[in-house]
UniProtKB/TrEMBL annotation:
This is DNA-entry nuclease. Signal peptide: none annotated. The chain crosses the membrane at residues 6-26, 38-59. Keywords: Membrane, Transmembrane, Transmembrane helix. Residues 127-187 are annotated as: Disordered. Residues 127-147 have a biased composition (Basic and acidic residues). The keyword Membrane applies. The keyword Transmembrane helix applies. It comes from the Bacteria.
């Protein structure tokens, strides 16, 4: 609040109290029988207004003290920015934008690399599962082949024992050693030549050949003994 505003309020306050309240009351009730009621009313009003004014001025707080105790003074500094500073700020902003774009590009590269690594790991896992499956299948085939070979070897040994080691007179109604010819067994596809150890067989299964070449051409093989 400046000095002019204070003075204006004081004047209005004096006028208000002088003309409306003290003057009116003194003239009507105190000096109503006096011949100079206006003069005495005016003087009395002035005294009353002066006393009230002094009391009011004393009751007013000091602006400087109240301001200093309640609120600190704030000083604002206005700094003018020159053309050079503005250019530097613009350059700095461009550099920051460039660095931000670079970081975004690196982040995108990292995301792409992570996705590629996941896809690669997935493919490797599928390849391992496929290889493991193929290995199991191959092992099963190998076991099957081994079993087949073992069975074949066992049947060959059994047949060999039957053809070479069985003494005459085991089975059948004829002996190959007594025929004097090349005799083949229709069931076993084995032929015997004269001079080999004979074995008995059913005459119904006997096939006679004129030479070993003829027997081999027919799909027969020679007995081991």
């Amino acid at each position: 609040m400046n000095a002019l505003e204070k003075i204006g309020k004081v004047i209005l306050w004096i006028l208000f109290w002088y003309y409306l309240i003290p003057y009116y009351l003194l003239k009507k009730y105190v000096f109503k029988h006096s011949k100079r009621d206006r003069l005495w009313s005016s003087l009395s009003s002035v005294v009353i207004v002066f006393v009230l004014f002094c009391c009011w001025v004393n009751s007013l707080p000091d602006d400087d003290s109240s301001t200093s105790t309640t609120e600190p003074k704030v000083h604002y500094i206005v700094k003018k920015v020159g053309q050079k500073e503005l250019i530097k700020a613009q350059i700095k902003e461009k550099v920051l934008d460039k660095e931000e774009k670079k970081e975004e590009a690196e982040y995108e590269k990292l995301v792409a690399a992570l996705a590629a690594a996941k896809n690669k790991a997935k493919k490797e896992k599928l390849a391992e599962e496929k290889a493991e499956k193929e290995a199991k299948e191959e092992a099963a085939k190998e076991v099957k082949r081994d079993n087949y070979s073992a069975n074949s070897s066992q049947s060959t040994k059994t047949e060999h024992h039957h053809n070479s080691g069985a003494p005459a007179g085991n089975h059948g109604d004829m002996n190959t050693a007594d025929s004097g010819k090349i005799v083949g067994n229709r069931n076993s596809k084995i032929y015997h030549v004269p001079g080999q150890a004979g074995y008995r067989m059913n005459s119904a299964n006997a096939v006679y050949f004129d030479s070993e070449a003829e027997a081999k051409a027919a799909g027969y093989r020679k007995a081991l003994r």
